[in-house]
Amino acid sequence: MTPVKAILFDVFGTVVDWRTSVADEGRAMAKRQGIEGIDWDAFADAWRAGYHPAMDRIRLGEQPWTTNDRLHRERLDEILDEFGITGLDEDEREEFNCAWHRLTPWPDSVLGLALLKSRYTIGTLSNGSYFLLANMAKHSGLPWDCILSADNFRHFKPDLEVYRGAIELFGGVPGEVMLCAAHNGDLAAARSHGMKTAFVPRPTEYGPDQITDLVPEDDWDIIADGIEGVAEQLGVLREDIGF
Questions:
Q1: What is the CATH number of the domain that holds 170?
Q2: Same structural domain for residues 66 and 13?
Q3: What value, to the nearest 5°, has the Cα angle with vertex 212 and ends 82 and 174?
Q4: d(CA 232, CA 154)
């Protein structure tokens, strides 16, 4: 395998547990507001379900470019009505929308990233907004060397501009850049542009009844149970760097 110089990460689902985090934020907001009777896991699922259709509208030219912060907010306004949640003013809606800035990492994420950072340049390659990813890193202790966002390229994955743009930023040699993701489709797109690939399954990303991305669907360069496992397969061990 061509020596890898940089390892980039899908973030939502791969590094952070968005579903549990958003549902917990909903429960906390409901307690403050005196809101009862809401299935917050279902609310998180419904909020996320609007994400890809919204990005598709931008790809098709039906909506001008905007960040995923704005897409999250547009969807939030829809589902508050769908779930019968009333009484939130503008500031409260904006604060709730920022739940996506405060997502909690999976248990292996921070240590795994720290291990990889000791030998490689690590960063995001995410559809999240730049501001969101920066806030999330500070909130959750994610030790990125750099943040690459859809905002950098004004395209969302899996548009080719995202992967090729990342490759160019790291010297233009595709095989020197690896994408780590919990989603086979993301890895397939990365591989189609020459990037190396690492698959980390997150079998509860979409809850206990998840049926997608449970197993690798191709012979990805690395297949590991977690990000620490990716580090181990690349020869970075805890004891070697004092963890």
A1: 3.40.50.1000
A2: no
A3: 110
A4: 34
Cβ atoms 229, 107 nearer than 8 A:
no
Neighbours of 22 (CB within 10 A): 24
Alpha carbon 219 to its chain's center: 22
Residues 144-180: pLDDT tens digits? 999 999 999 999 999 999 999 999 999 999 999 999 9
Q: pLDDT grade, residue 239 (50/70/90)? A: confident
Q: What are phi and psi of 36, to 5 degrees?
A: -130, 160
Q: Would you state the pLDDT for residue 1?
A: 58
Asked which of 66, 101, 136 is the last residue of a domain, the reply is 101
Instruction: Report how far residue 167's alpha carbon sits from residue 190's, in angstroms, rounded to the nearest whole number.
Output: 10
Q: Could you give the CA distance from residue 80 to residue 12 in angstroms, rounded to a whole number? A: 22
Q: Are 160 and 234 in a shared domain?
A: yes
- Count up the domains in the chain and report the number: 2
Range of the domain at 30: 20-101
Instruction: Kindly state whether residues 70 and 170 are assigned to the same domain.
Output: no
CB atoms within 10 A of CB 20: 18
Q: The CATH number of the domain where 26 resides is what?
A: 1.10.150.240
Closest by Cα among 186, 167, 21 to 99: 21
User: SS3 sequence, 187-234?
Assistant: HHHHHHCCCEEEECCCCCCCCCCCCCCCCCCCCCCEECCCHHHHHHHC
pTM above 0.70, yes or no: yes
Are both 110 and 79 inside the same structural domain? no
The domain boundary residue, chosen from 38, 71, 101: 101
Pairwise CA distance, residues 116 & 91, whole Å: 39
